[in-house]
Amino acid sequence: xxxxxxxxxxxxxxxxxxxxxxxxxxxxxxxxxxxxxxxxxxxxxxxxxxxxxxxxxxxxxxxxxxxxxxxxxxxxxxxxxxxxxxxxxxxxxxxxxxxxxxxxxxxxxxxxxxxxxxxxxxxxxxxxxxxxxxxxxxxxxxxxxxxxxxxxxxxxxxxxxxxxxxxxxxxxxxxxxxxxxxxxxxxxxxxxxxxxxxxxxxxxxxxxxxxxxxxxxxxxxxxxxxxxxxxxxxxxxxxxxxxxxxxxxxxxxxxxxxxxxxxxxxxxxxxxxxxxxxxxxxxxxxxxxxxxxxxxxxxxxxxxxxxxxxxxxxxxxxxxxxxxxxxxxxxxxxxxxxxxxxxxxxxxxxxxxxxxxxxxxxxxxxxxxxxxxxxxxxxxxxxxxxxxxxxxxxxxxxxxxxxxxxxxxxxxx
Length: 413
What we know:
The chain is α/β, with parallel strands linked by helices.
């Protein structure tokens, strides 16, 4: 009789199993048994091939309901802030919401938006197992919300944070939402899942901005459905953390829906940053553009996995994806995996990826005009990433993002 040998759990898996046992929920117990039997995803799991979670998750703090210490997070622009400190949420923050927006504290994880499918969903399983807090937001149909809404998530003092948010945007509404994530220098874990349903004709700008301490792990997910004529601008700035995996899963469910994703990943020494996106076009006449710029100045590692799927009914789809990376050190590393899966025959789809150092001729051009090499290199790197946020239709937000990029590059360039 053949028996499966018992898996030797890593230190991180052992700590996670203990946290799941302490959580005591049915979802936590199911996941605990799965990890004991199979472990966390490794390179053998296709969706995690470039981010070996079993090897990279070195530790996991005990699940905690404590608020933790204050963590300073850049505000970027004035916004109505909903603050999560650790797993604590003060529902009095809901009084800050602008007219046309209603909210309530979430008491259970939300459901995936219509049409969103996720393969090997370890982030979602962890979120459901350890869920502690969240917010449910609704933007009324036709509301033109001028004040941005900020969901501010801070973790500190060696805390495991697990948040799940659900946001519904009514038909023809307009709103800007900012997800901010920050942490201190302790060994923290942050798990954040957001479900976003965008109604017919609505226009949404959504920003994910994270600046984490060098010992914090963050596993995050944004799941989106777009209805007919909906328009989404999704911005992303990752600038910190020990292990960061940001997934974005989008179901384009309505005709004439359009979306643009623009992201910058600043990957410092000792950091592993993974951005994984899936775009599912289910109906005709939809458009999508996706652009990521990455800078790896030292011994950091980055990953981009982007998949565009076009179903057979989704004729006239126009989907473009590009990932461009600067490796500024012999120790830096970046893996790019763009994919197209097309079942329609009348589409315009393309993808591309580049990985390079600064062009010698560009550097020579600046040095020939009297600019020292170090300053010239810094100017070229800044220009490479800052142009991503130049044309986003919101000048204050654009200037704030460029400011954060410059601050990071000045410290790490």
